[in-house]
């Protein structure tokens, strides 16, 4: 009886050990899976953040470029307009001066010789 009891105890112990090992293995596997999932999630989050940052930076850069281009265009237009206006004013002034000189000369001629 004692022999049988010892045999049964040893078998029960081995069975319990195997059960415990299996349980521990499953728990370890689940824990590792969760750790891997968390790590993957963190890596995916970081990758997504970097992608989003790049897109945002690109959009911001393009927006800034467009605004700068428009401001530069307006500034250039204003400068060109002012230069054109000054040039036109000078030409008009010269033509007017010539016409006045011509008229004065004609008047002078007519009053003197006619």
Termini, distance in Å? 164 Å
Structural class: mainly alpha
As a percent range, the share of strand residues is: under 5%
Q: Would you report the number of β strands?
A: 0
Mean pLDDT: 95
Task: Give unreliable regions as ranges.
Answer: none
Give a quick account of the main beta sheet: strands, pairing sense, barrel closure: none
Total helices: the number is 1
Structural features:
single chain; 114 residues; mainly alpha; 1 helix; rod-shaped
Structural notes for this entry:
There is one protein chain. By secondary structure, this protein is mainly alpha-helical. It is 98% helix and 0% strand. The chain contains 1 helix and no strands. The longest helix has 112 residues, at 2-113. The mean pLDDT is 95.
